[in-house]
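Reviewer comment 2.1 asked that we show a complete input and output for one of the modelled complexes. We chose the copper (II) ion case, as it is the one discussed in the main text.
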Amino acid sequence: MRNVACAAAVLGALSLIGPAFAGAPVTQKTASYAISLTLGPKETMFTPAEVKAKHLKSGEVMIGGSMAMDMSSGMGGAVRHLEVHITSRATGKAITNLTPKIAVADRTTKALSDVITVVKMQGVGAPASDIHFGNNVDLHLGHAYTVAVAVGAEETVFHFVAK
Ligand SMILES: [Cu+2]
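Response of the prediction step:
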């Protein structure tokens, strides 16, 4: 019975801090926006030219600037695809013309927060409503993180434990 109690305790804790990996997105509201954070498995990010040339049917296409780059080094323990979807609370439509600032802080090591290189992207073959912002990032499993997302003057902070 000890294991059962333990698992229940873990699940209870997780529901407080929200899913961190491949779970449903966690959404927070600011005055004008609904901002959703999703952490999934590493995604391969392609340029529009690569998608065309290779006839790709999956992965993600980078549509925001040519300097976009993969932030992950593979040295941090686990690579996760961090995505932020922003919707206007007034129209319900995806915000595609404002690039958010995203900062990731490891609260376990208390390291300074990293402002990540934000890539605007869209799933290959997905509709425009899929347009989102983020990058592949290195996370340490079991560490607690905060992700601060600023859209214009509005900001929200997400808390999770990487798993
Ligand atoms: Cu993405």
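Residues 2-17 form the longest helix (16 residues). We note this here for comparison with the apo prediction described in Section 3.2.
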